[in-house]
Design brief:
Largest sheet: 6 strands, mixed
Shape: elongated
Strand content: 35-45%
Organism: Haloferax mediterranei (strain ATCC 33500 / DSM 1411 / JCM 8866 / NBRC 14739 / NCIMB 2177 / R-4) (Halobacterium mediterranei)
Number of helices: 5
CATH architecture of the largest domain: Sandwich
Protein name: PGF-CTERM sorting domain-containing protein
Number of strands: 41
Pfam family, one: DUF7282
Strand order of the largest sheet: 2-10-9-4-5-8
Helix content: under 10%
Structural class: mainly beta
Length: 569
């Protein structure tokens, strides 16, 4: 039975053919390789033994073979623009190159060409070369900051691509970057020469003046280094950047319009017609200008020291301008870089230090001082007053001297904080013999309190709801950021003075003579020449703040009032 089973198995067994270990193999890097007519294409072939690459055939009117030696991966490069000569002039890589059909009179035509690899006459791989029709070359005007050329390293396509902004307006001195979306010119274009001659393969790139003035000739500038031009190819993305430094281009008036042109001249083997402008784009050359606006050129003592600066410029987006602030005669200098936004605007927030209060200084954009200079005033909180003992008829008092760093008022009130009257508006500066008329007659000898107020709402009308007393440590300053309030300056005690006022029915209000000048903050506040309001002074008794004799009862009252004032302050 065992013998019978073996005989049956032998009869039914069919041997499976084995693949020899040395059986040749081949493959293409891509099943379909695509190229635009006129560009350069790379074809990668992997093969285990020497073989032959075939492209096309008799049916295509083009049959090229390239020998593949040894084993591994062979890269074949074909320049489709120059494909009208012998294969060795436009094909590189591999071994012997043979064209089995007639030489082409025009660059290889768009079509889908069969490709295969044979080893020892046996087809081992198959693929396809897709030659696409050449499209139209187009041009777009973009702009880049002049600083792009400042680098010592060579310009790269990546540098240019990241720096440009699409727009036709270019400030003189910036870079006009003409972006050419080329098609089929990769091997024809030589970045070192685009002047249209034989060495340039007939490719000419130029900038042409459009508006010709009477008795003038049209000016044309070729894209040469002498004319400030750098050609930066990006053939991987079918783009060529023409980077043009506009510093030396003529500019008549506020604007000059140029047209960038790409012209193909001479014989291009029927690839394109001769003397054809294949792309054009306009460049509007304008004067570089900068304007700025400061939302609060005068910062009052109760306001935050945060200042918002905005502006507009014709400079290229990405350009950096320098905001400068300098206080004459002081060790104070701010240098702040501002980057131009994509829409040509400038925005910068400045924060000054509390110690900067009292300074007045110019602020401007470097190189554009005449157009941009603004005067910043960081007003400080500084006030003092002198209220001496005196006699009145009960309808007024005289404040001997008032010094205010910003405009304000002086109020007078009783020891129990009952308001009696308020002075007229007092501009910033020094005032002597300020009259405060009472809203009602004061009927008794009293110790009164004079308080210096700032006109916080700046309407020159006193309001207890908005105006605030001067304090020794300044005002409470509140910044509002993201909806939250944060106090960054702490105020001290109220600036005030008290005096004993004695009733004298015959006392009269002096007739004032006024010379008032609004003052501004300076870099040396202590030396500010304050304006003076002159009034006819009352003659006090001998001594300071003690010239009026008063009874023992009044002395007790004065002591009580002094304690109350001290408690309030």
């Amino acid at each position: 039975m065992l013998v019978a089973a073996l005989i049956l198995f032998a009869a039914l067994w069919v041997p499976t053919p084995a693949i020899a270990a040395d059986e040749p193999t081949a493959s293409f890097g891509e099943d379909v390789t695509t190229v635009t007519r006129g560009d350069v294409v790379e074809i990668r072939v992997s093969h285990s033994q020497p073989g032959t690459l075939h492209i096309g055939g008799d049916d295509y009117g083009y049959h090229l073979t390239v020998e593949l030696g040894g084993s591994g991966t062979t890269t074949i490069t074909i320049d489709t623009y120059n494909s009208t000569g012998k294969p060795k002039t436009y094909v590189s890589g591999g071994g012997n190159k043979t064209l089995h059909t007639a030489e082409l009179r025009r660059p290889i035509e768009p079509a889908a060409y069969l490709m295969n690899v044979t080893i020892d006459g046996v087809e081992r791989a198959i693929g396809q070369l897709e030659v696409e029709p050449r499209g139209n070359t187009s041009a777009t005007t973009t702009v880049a900051p002049a600083s792009l050329n400042d680098s010592d390293s060579k310009l790269t396509a990546k540098n240019v691509r990241e720096a440009v902004t699409e727009r036709q307006k270019v400030a003189k001195g910036d870079l006009a970057v003409i972006q050419l979306n080329e098609s089929g010119l990769e091997s024809a274009l030589k970045p070192g020469d685009v002047t249209g001659g034989a060495n340039a393969s007939g490719i000419e790139i130029s900038l042409n003046q459009l508006e010709v003035r009477p008795n003038h000739e049209q000016q044309t500038f070729l894209a040469t280094p002498e004319n400030g031009t750098t050609i930066v190819p990006d053939f991987e993305n079918d783009v060529v950047y023409v980077v043009w430094d506009t510093s030396d281009l003529p500019l008549e008036g506020d604007e000059e319009t140029y047209e960038a042109r790409v012209t193909l001249q001479g014989n291009h083997s029927g690839f394109v017609e001769e003397d054809t402008i294949t792309a054009r784009s306009r460049v509007r050359l304008v004067e570089p200008t900068v304007s700025v606006n400061v939302d609060n050129e005068t910062v009052y003592p109760w306001e935050s020291l945060r200042v918002n600066v905005t502006g507009k410029t014709t400079l290229a987006p990405g350009s950096t301008v320098e905001l400068r602030a300098r206080a004459p005669g002081q060790p104070f200098l701010k240098l702040v870089p501002i980057t131009v936004e994509s829409d040509g605007t400038l925005t910068q927030n400045l924060t000054f230090a509390p110690d900067d209060r009292g300074l007045s200084f110019p602020m401007w954009i470097r190189d554009y001082r005449d157009e941009t200079e603004r005067t910043m005033r960081l007003l400080e909180s500084d006030a003092s007053l002198r209220f001496v003992d005196q006699e009145t008829d009960g309808t007024f008092v005289t404040i001997s001297e008032v010094n205010l760093s910003v405009g304000g008022f002086v109020t007078v009130e009783t020891a129990d904080e009952e308001p009696l009257g308020t002075s007229a508006y007092l501009p910033a500066g020094s005032h002597k013999n300020v009259i405060v008329d009472f809203d009602r007659r004061q009927l008794t000898d009293s110790e009164l309190l004079a308080i210096a107020y700032a006109d916080r709402d700046r309407n020159q009308n006193f309001s207890r709801a908005f105006d605030a007393p001067f304090r020794t440590g300044g005002f409470n300053v509140t910044n509002t950021t993201n909806g939250t309030n944060a106090t960054n300056e702490t105020a001290g005690t109220i600036i005030a003075d008290d005096a004993m006022v004695r009733l004298e029915p015959g006392a009269k209000t002096p007739t004032p003579t006024t010379t008032t000048t609004e003052s501004t903050a300076t870099t040396t506040p202590t030396a500010t020449p304050y304006p003076v309001v002159e009034r006819t002074p009352l003659e006090p008794s001998s001594g300071t703040n003690a010239g009026i004799p008063f009874s023992p009862g009044l002395a007790v009252i004065a002591l009580l009032l002094t304690g109350l004032i001290a408690r309030r302050l």
